Amino acid sequence: xxxxxxxxxxxxxxxxxxxxxxxxxxxxxxxxxxxxxxxxxxxxxxxxxxxxxxxxxxxxxxxxxxxxxxxxxxxxxxxxxxxxxxxxxxxxxxxxxxxxxxxxxxxxxxxxxxxxxxxxxxxxxxxxxxxxxxxxxxxxxxxxxxxxxxxxxxxxxxxxxxxxxxxxxxxxxxxxxxxxxxxxxxxxxxxxxxxxxxxxxxxxxxxxxxxxxxxxxxxxxxxxxxxxxxxxxxxxxxxxxxxxxxxxxxxxxxxxxxxxxxxxxxxxxxxxxxxxxxxxxxxxxxxxxxxxxxxxxxxxxxxxxxxxxxxxxxxxxxxxxxxxxxxxxxxxxxxxxxxxxxxxxxxxxxxxxxxxxxxxxxxxxxxxxxxxxxxxxxxxxxxxxxxxxxxxxxxxxxxxxxxxxxxxxxxxxxxxxxxxxxxxxxxxxxxxxxx
Length: 435
Fold this sequence. Notes:
The protein is α/β, with parallel strands linked by helices.
């Protein structure tokens, strides 16, 4: 069994604060409004040489006005099933709450190590007050903590790792990372669920359901990789809630942290300015990119419509037309696996290293046939080319006059690199150095 800790409890007891403390990142969104955390949210913690997964969950509640209440309860129960140890969080400031007592009925059904984590114990008096949670009747140790300052979390971790087996490799860092991004309501969460064949993330028709970036380990085509579902990215002028603002930041961070971005568009809405902004972000951060046209089954088609649509998009993309386009329907699962296969192909191209001998054998012939134009009587001679060991795909051209290489000739060289070596969906940077 994997080493997994689930943090559960009623709303507003500090679950996300503890989650961020344990994974040492501000990854989960924290806000005083209840119901901010909706989906299961995964992170990784290392303590005493053991690496384990931490799951943050939404606040468990019944009988509220939140339309996501039932879905959140389902997510919490799934997290409890996945976990190998459970941190049941309560609030020392508020004391024993009726919702805590309601949740005990759920916890009692779970035959796993449980710790009652009494949060907000930032004074000796509050720490003493934590003993009132014995009234919950659980056979569980009470551990006072203050997740904001970190007080008591070391003792909690010491207890928890006793239940975890061996050491796990930190596989997440080494696996290819594919982020699913796009405007709200284009079908990102439905795409993840269709791939996984289960309700891994909450899916509704309400724009903005996914607020945090949600990571999922996935295996397909004999390869392991991470899929990240993200909040819909809207224009700044349409972001009114603080929570949604931070969701957008998480989505942008997901692009920054990814290797490949799958930018999902709604076929019935076409390519809008915000789509271009998202594609531009992926290009700016030097990420591999594919464009996934979803809801293609709803688009009224004529002969050659897909090809015409593709040409239309490529014209609008201009210099970003190197990005491959695939037409899908998540509802009917049409080409959804081909979309992931394409994203993995882009990742392979992005991590490909071309030898200096291969580059020079191909490109020097192209340069000889079409040399860079002379500037002010200076004849430009490119001597050789090499690929630089950078995170993005970068090629260095060594020449006698690097300052005189025009932008049009840079585009010519980039296109020739693509002609010979592919790099579909991968931004290419060319630099010129003095030789």
